[in-house]
User: Fold Succinate--CoA ligase [ADP-forming] subunit beta from Gelidibacter algens.
Amino acid sequence: MNLHEYQGKDILSSFGVRIQRGIVAKNANEAVAAAKQLTAETGTGWYVIKAQVHAGGRGKGGGVKLAKSLKEVEEVSGKMIGMQLITPQTSAEGKKVHQVLVAEDVYYPGASETSEFYVSVLLNRGTGRNMIMYSTEGGMDIETVAEETPHLIFTEEIDPSTGILPFQARRIAFNLGLEGNAFKEMTKFVTNLYTAYVASDASLFEINPVLKTSDDKIMAVDAKVTIDDNALYRHKDYLNLRDLREESAIEVEAGALGLNYVDLDGNVGCMVNGAGLAMATMDLIKQAGGEPANFLDVGGTADAARVEAAFSIILKDPAVKAILINIFGGIVRCDRVAQGIIDAYKNMGNIDVPIIVRLQGTNADIAKKLIDDSGLDVMSATEFQEAADKVQSVLA
Ligand code: GDP
Ligand code: MN
Assistant:
């Protein structure tokens, strides 16, 4: 589950991680009230208005703007709320901005220069350990840093049995070139950040930039937080942080039906049981000259109701030109799946894209006969290659 910047910052703050403070607003009036409150609490005279959407690169798309007066807060937030924000990380049509974060300006001048860093916490799948990845090149997109100046990215692996140790926090602050109070603040920042990551069952914390202010404070200016869905049962208080407006409507609907569905850009819909077979099926479609329109794992119980639900989800995608059903009957018998497909097809009425069904496993022969005798416009296949050839023939 992805969170908005303001929600991620709330979690960080609750673990003692210093953040750029802000208040969320749904319209220009609320934004002005938020700005007044921020001034009362922090003394700030300038503000940053930040679009709250699940996409990075907002600054580049006009979703992060400085406002130097309450009047500018009103103007900027009035324009930003309701706009379609297009950033390097959104689709071409962009994302609708429903709310903004009115934040204190933290790039104020002072005794020293401000500097921006990159700090993230994530799982290193190679070692099975969490790691802190950090760089002196903050504020830039980290993929570019990785490509152009990979020596400026550092990692610190954390032993799960000890958590982050003081010497590791000091090494991070040292490698970031910090001294004095900023050095001390950074050790506290990364220590609390790591603790927050583990305690919230997050799968990603990406803080870009982490700012060293002109008076040597270290704080999170941005926060990209992803909570591991599999751990949400342990965090009932996070459940209401989900913002369905930010998620693909079709994926949300599929999720509600208990289907594992990921929307993709191609033209061949697939319905498969098991994630591994689903991946193999997507490869098969590519080899046949098609592009998968989705990843869909119907799970172990591919009965008529589930098959019908899966059909209805796949057919919502107007790009789908053919559907490939690839089911391995292990626990579930193929003839029951075949009957499910036939029933679902009849219930749905006019499905006007060709359907290719490959059923393999227990009672595959009975299943094939059921499909062939059904009189429906469904092609059956037994072998992988045969299914691929049939996909190729319908796309031609
Ligand atoms: P992103 O573009 O979606 O990653 O949004 P960020 O929250 O990272 O903000 C983008 C950029 O806006 C930052 O890298 C900063 O340079 C700038 N920015 C953020 N907060 C402030 C602020 O308080 N004052 C000023 N002057 N700039 C800010
Ligand atoms: Mn950022």
Notes: Residues 343 and 349 are 10 Å apart (CA to CA). Residues 249-395 form a domain with the Rossmann fold fold (CATH 3.40.50.261). The two ends are 39 Å apart (CA to CA).
